[in-house]
Amino acid sequence: MNPAEILRSAWHGVAANPLRSVLTMLGVLISVASVILLLAVGNGSATEIQSQINSLGTTTLTVRATQQGSSSSQGLTTDVADRVAAAGLGHVAKVIPQVSTSQTVSADGTSSDSVSVIGTTADYFTLGTHEVASGSPFTDADDELASKVVVLGQTTATDLFGSARAALGSTIDIDGTAYTVKGIMAAQSSTSTADADSVVIAPLARVQRSFTGFDDISTLTVTATDADSVDAAEGELEVLLDQLLEVSSSSSSASGTQGSSDAGSGSSSRSGSSSSSSSPYQIVNQSSLLKTQAASAQSFTTLLGAVAAISLLVGGIGVTNVMLVSVTERTREIGIRKALGATRGVILAQFLVEAAVLTLGGGLLGVALALIGAHFEINGTQPVVLVWSIPLALDVSVAIGVFFGAYPAARAARMRPIQALRAE
C-alpha cells in the first residue's frame, strides 16, 4: 500500500464521522490559537515596553533632584548645571537643565487645568524624542532674554484651540501673562498614566522668573556621545556631581549600598548622609532600564507560551480518546483488511496519519483564528505575532497527533484477524 493510498484511507476515516472529527479538531484549534495569541501578547507587551523606553532615549541619562540644598550638601541648581556643562566630560555630549511646575493655561475663554509647564533650554529640542512637529522651537536667545514664547504639546494645543494648526502664532495666558505659541510638539509616547502631550515648554529663564525662582532645578538631562558611552558618562557624571554637591566620602560609601539596591531598576544614587532619604540626586540610566525591561518581557513571553502549551496536551489526550473509539468501532474493518493481506505497518500508518490529519487540520484552523485575533487589542495590548510561532505550532500539532495517536494505532496493528472478524 503506497503513501497516497494510506493518506486516502486516513482521510476517509476522518470524513466518516464529521461531527466527531470537528470536535476533536476544535480542541487542537483552541490550543494552537491560545499558544500563538499568548506568545503574540507577550511579544506585543515587550515591543511596547521597548518602544516606550526607546522614546526616552537610550543614550540619555536623567539626573533627578531628590532634595533641596542643606547645610551638608546642596541640591541641583542652575549653577551646578552650568558647571557640569563646562566641565568638558569626555563621554558627555549635552547637559540640559529643566524645571517644571503645574499651571492653569487658558486661551480665548478656554482653559486647561494642571498642565505641566516645563522650563528648559533650546537643546531640549535636539533630543530625538522631543521633536517639534510644526512651527519652530525657541532659541538660545529666547532663553537669554527670558522671552514669553512657548511650544505646546499636542493635547494642550487641541484642548485650547481645537487643532495644532490653529494654535501656531496664537497667544495663551499663564498666570496672567501672555505667551506667544512658536511651535507644536510631535505626539509623545508615555510610560505612565500622565498625558505626555499635556505640556507647555518655555525658556528656562522665563519659567524660573515667573514661577519657580532662579535657584533650584528639578532635572538634568545628560546625553552621552554614543550608546556605547552611556555607562562611562554615568561614571564621570557621578564623580563630578559628588564634588559639586559636596558629598562626603562617608556619605558616598553609604550611598553605595543604596546604588546597589537600585541597580536592578537602571538607576543609581549618591547620598549626602547615611540616610538614603537625603540623597541629593539620582541618576536614571535608560540603557540599563531597557535591558532590564527587555529581559523581564522575554521571561513573561516564555511563561505565557509554556502555560498555553499545556492546553496542547489536553487536546492530545482528546485525540487519544477519539482514536481509541475509532479503533473499537472499526475492529471488523481491521480484521478484513488484515485477512486480505494488510500488514501491521500499513494499519499502524493508517491510524497514525488519521490522527495527524485531525491535529494538523485543527492546527491550521487555530493559526487562522490566531491571525484574526491578533488584529484586536487584548487587555490593552496589541498582539504582535511571532513569525516562527506559526510553523512551530503546525509542527507541534502534527507531533501531538502522532504521539497521542501512537497507542490507538499500535492497538489496531496488533489485532489478530480472526479475533477482529469475530467482533460484533
Automatic annotation (TrEMBL):
InterPro entries with a match to the protein in the record: ABC3_permease_C, MacB_PCD, Macrolide_Exporter_MacB
Keyword Ligase: no
Annotated ranges, domain ABC3 transporter permease C-terminal: 306-416
Pfam families, A to Z: FtsX, MacB_PCD
Domain MacB-like periplasmic core: 21-238
Record-annotated membrane-spanning stretches: 21-42, 303-325, 346-373, 385-407
Compartment(s): Cell membrane
The protein's name in its UniProt record: FtsX-like permease family protein
Annotated source species: Pseudoclavibacter caeni
Upper lineage: Bacteria, Bacillati, Actinomycetota, Actinomycetes, Micrococcales
